[in-house]
Amino acid sequence: PMATNVGGVPDQPQSEHEIDQVSQNQKKEEGAKRKRMKERFEVWEHFFKEDYLPSGRQATCKYCGMSYKCGAKKNSTSVLWAHISRCRIGFRHFCGVMEPRFNVPSRITVAKDCFETYLTEKRKLKNVLKRCNSRVSLTTDTWTSIQQINYMCLTVRFIDNDWKVHKRILNFCPISSHKGDDIGKEIEKCLLDWGLEKVMCITIDNASSNDTAIGYMRKKINGWKTGVLKGRFIHMRCVAHVVNLVIFDGLKTVNESVQRVRHAVRFIKQSPTRLQRWNSTYLMLNAAIELEDAFERYSEEDPHYVIDLNERDGKGSPDSDDWNNVRRFSEFLQAFYDLTLHDFGSLYVTSNFFFHELVSVAVLLKDLVSSDDPDMCLMVCRMKENYEKYWGDPEKINLLIFIVVVLDPRYKLVYVEWMITEIYDPIVASKLVNNVKDALNALYEEYRVSSSKDVNKEEVSSSKDDKTPLSPKHKKLKS
Fold first, then answer.
1. Strand order across the 67-69 sheet
2. How far is the C-alpha of 331 from the C-alpha of 270, rounded, in Å?
3. From CA 397, how far away is CA 428, in angstroms rounded?
4. Phi, psi of 11 (to 5 degrees)
């Protein structure tokens, strides 16, 4: 026992045993304080603690009464936080505290309000499209969800009477299949619902089923007698999709190197693959090249990195040759990436840019096909074959790509003729130039006839207005 002095203050302990005992008691008190502090999370403001239960310590929600195990290392507060985020009674309590005058509606009421808002906005857009005198252009895309349900999205682009460009989604709906007739019937149904008949062109991916859908819609629009030159320009192949096909054809030559780098990135970042997006591949390669030394160091420090990459498809980790291949390929893709950033915008007119992109890609492939690098030459040759498959035959090209450049006051017809002769063989170029001139003349004649009919209708309507009966007073003044 410790002795006390005259003032009642205990003396300092004299033995080492007493000193150790005092320090241990202080650590226990500090540990108990720390444990009490750990339990003072904000989550406990919404739960009751029940310590003396046969099943162990539990936390019970103050609002709905749901109970969860807590206190053990494996039962952290993350379960309690997750419950708060989905507790409906707790959300109602939160809304009541935040604004007592607000009554939280039911999900049926919210769904009803959303549907009424949709109908209101649909009527507004219908009135805008009805007042618009210009033709519209459509874009459609189809895909299959992970639940194996087929969907189609139909987007309209038009210019209003104030010469402003608009883009609106008309329909997003499930379809029975990806067959061309089913796609065409769904597009027809949507156009009839919106009261749209004056369609200039439909942009769609390169697939045989889509060709069937375009043929179906061409017959319907010609039946409505609203097509231009009997639907001659209605089929517009998606330029972005063609560029995607061209690039992926060249990607096959360096596919193994790209796969090794992709697997290395996935091991570290655990990101999902996007095999159908070449721009994602370019951005991934561009970022990985900057960290080449880090990947080399990682292979030396982490044995699981090498083991996992060797077991995955047996490709292994990327070596120096792989990094050289992807570096050359990334530099090559940068030109395509810069083009797509400029030409594939949705908030401004891009139709007059496509011909320039077509020329830029052709010139780029033409310059690189004679490269000293055999791997680069092989890759470009494969891409050039795919390029000519879609844009090499004048019969498969929508001539609107050239006509919109002719209508651009900065270029005119002479520029288009010169650029066509630069990227095509003389025979093909001559045929394509003649096709552009014939289409331009036919298009002008089509609009000239239709505009003269509109003028005659206005004159007839105005003459009918002038034939109103005159009053006796006006007859006297007229005589």
1. 47-50, 58-61, 67-69
2. 25
3. 12
4. -75, 160
Coil, strand or helix at 396: helix
Q: Please give the structure tokens belonging to residue 430.
A: 């001559």
What pTM value is reported for the model? 0.68
- Among 323, 402, 389, which residue's Cα sits nearest to residue 357? 402
Residue 458's pLDDT band (cuts 50, 70, 90): low
Q: Which two tokens stand for residue 478?
A: 């007229």
Tokens representing residue 280 in the block: 């994602």
Tell me which residue of 397, 449, 454, 450 sits closest to 423, measured CA to CA. Answer: 397
Q: Is 451 helix (H, G, I), strand (E, B) or coil?
A: helix
Alpha carbon separation from 238 to 18, 54, 235, 266 (Å, rounded): 86, 67, 9, 31
Distance between CA atoms of residues 246 and 379, nearest Å: 10
315 vs 326: CA distance, rounded Å = 15
In a domain, 381, yes or no: yes
The pLDDT tens digits of the residues spanning 255-313 come to: 777 777 877 877 776 555 555 567 777 788 888 888 888 877 877 777 777 677 766 66
pLDDT tens by residue, 232-251:
899 988 887 888 888 877 77
Containing structural domain, residue 71: 33-97
Separation of alpha carbons 125 and 194, rounded Å = 9
What Rg, from alpha-carbon coordinates, does the chain have?
Answer: 36
Residue-wise burial string across 316-353, b where 16 or more C-beta atoms lie within 10 A, e elsewhere:
bbbeeebbebbbbbbebbeebeebbeebbeeeeebbbb
Residues 226 and 120 placed together within one structural domain of the fold: yes
Task: Give a yes or no: residue 361 inside a domain.
Answer: no
2 lies in some domain: no
